[in-house]
Amino acid sequence: MTDIVTFGEVLAEFMATRINQRLGEAGQFAGPYPGGAPAIFIDQAAKLGSTAALVSAVGDDDFGRMLVERLKADGVDTSSIATLADETTASAFVTYYDDGSRDFIFNIANGACARIAEAQFGPVLEGCKLFHVAGTALFSEHMIELARVAIGRVKAGGGRISFDPNVRKEMLDRPGVREALTGLLSSTDILLPSDDELNVLVEREAESEAVARAFELGVSEIVLKRGGDGCRYYDGSGMRELPGFEVEEVDPTGAGDSFGATFCTLRSQGMAAADALVYANAAGASAVSRQGAMEGTSTREQLDAFIASHS
Ligand code: ATP
Ligand code: MG
C-alpha cells in the first residue's frame, strides 16, 4: 500500500552559473541537480513521512543512477522507476535573467521518462490515497492516456486526485490538449494552479469566475500559488488568504512542487486545511531559499523550525 503516487519526469538539471547567461552562449553550468516536477513532489511527500512512489523511467546511465539513489535516500519508493537500456535519462538546462524570468531547454519528451508503460502502475496504485498529476508530465498523448487510466483506478479505489496544471497558453493550442486538461479537472479534488493558469484553462477572466467554474466541474479545494505573495485557498464555503514568509529568493524552481506536495500530503494525513496551508507556505518559502530544485524539500521538523523562526 502506497499513500501518495505520482508519475512523469525525473531529470538531471543544469543551471547557468551567471545571471543573464543565454543558453546559446558558451558558459558554465552547475549540475546535475535532481529535478522534474513529479520527482520533487514525491520527494517532498516522502520527507513528510507518507509512503510515496514515483512511476517513471530513466536510462542506464549515471544521471539515472544518481536520481534513483537520491529519491531512495529521501525515502521514496523507487520500485516503479524502470531503467531502460536503450534510452537516455531526461535532462534540463535553465538560465535566470535579472528581470526574474527564466529560459529552459528540456530533454523530456525525447528522454527515458517518455517511455513509461501502463504496466508499471501495477500494484503501486492499490490503496493509493492521493494520486498527483503534474501538468508538465502531460507532454504527449501517451502520458495523457496514462494519467487517465491511473486516475480511473485511484478514484475507483476511493483515493483523491491532485492536479498542478502548469499550463502555458502555447501548450493549450496543441490539438486535444485543452479538452484533455478540462476533462482532467472534472476528476480533480485538489487543484494547485499558479498565476493565471486557472483563468487560462477554464477561459474565465476574473478569479472568482474561474474558481466558480472549477467547482462546477467537480473540484473540491483550490490552492492558488502566488509566489512571494503566498497563497489563496478556496473550498465550497469561502476563501482564505496567507501572505508569503519573508525569505531571500535564491532559486524559484521547485517551489510550487514542494508547496503542493506539502499541502496534499498533510491533507491526506488528516491535517485541517488551515494548518496545511501554513506548512505549504513554509515549504515553498524554504524551497526558494535554496539552490537546486530538489534541494529545497523539507522534513516536518525542518518546517516546524522554519515556522517557529519566521513567526
Ligand atoms: P514553480 O516555479 O515551481 O512552477 P509555481 O509557479 O507553481 O512554482 P509559486 O507561486 O512560484 O509556484 O511558489 C509556490 C509557493 O511557494 C508560493 O505560493 C509561496 O507559498 C512560496 N513562495 C514562492 N516564492 C516565494 C518567495 N519569493 N518568498 C516566499 N515564499 C515564496
Ligand atoms: Mg512560480
Automatic annotation (TrEMBL):
Source organism, top-level taxon: Bacteria
Presence of keyword Nucleotide-binding: yes
The keyword Iron appears for this protein: no
Residue ranges of every copy of the Carbohydrate kinase PfkB domain listed in the record: 1-298
Keywords: ATP-binding, Kinase, Nucleotide-binding, Transferase
CDD domains: KdgK
SUPFAM superfamilies: Ribokinase-like
Family listed: Belongs to the carbohydrate kinase PfkB family.
Protein's UniProt name: Ribokinase-like domain-containing protein
Organism this protein belongs to: Salinisphaera hydrothermalis (strain C41B8)
